[in-house]
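User: If only I could read backbone structure tokens as easily as an amino acid sequence. Underneath my words sits a plain record pairing an amino acid chain with its backbone structure tokens. This is the protein in question:
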Amino acid sequence: MTILSQSLSFGLAVFFMLVGLVGVVIPMLPGTLLVWLTVLLYAILERANGFAAIDPLTFIVISLIAFVTGLADLWLPLVGAKASGSSRRALVFGVLGALAGTFLIPIPLLGTVIGYAAGILLGEYHKHRDWDRALRAGAGGVAGWGIATVLQLGGGLLILLLFVWQVLVYTG
């Protein structure tokens, strides 16, 4: 593999990882999954061409970071809503609201979060007929969603930094 092709593949990989980081904030783009897939593809292609910057241990660490942070948007909003007293019905309404909000309000992330909060609010009110309780549940769910986004962004940045460090140390 020539220095030019190594540089081009490295630059392309960093570009796709940056797109993945944008995808953490904009739900229509793949986020942490794209960052991880980029590292995987880079590692496979580099090994096929006799260049081995991404060692197995680094790839395992990157995979663990991607797994935990990549799934955070599935479990943290539920944990936040549950911690603030949401019922199962409210959580189901929240997921359905997030899906509806994503398509009905086409502003990236905003529609999803508004739909999620509205779903939890309506689901909790429907079950308990208490607006204060419903508002607390909705706020807890949105807080969990926000924390998940920050966690995913941090995980994606950490993966990017590990990747860049490994490649630069190997080629340096």
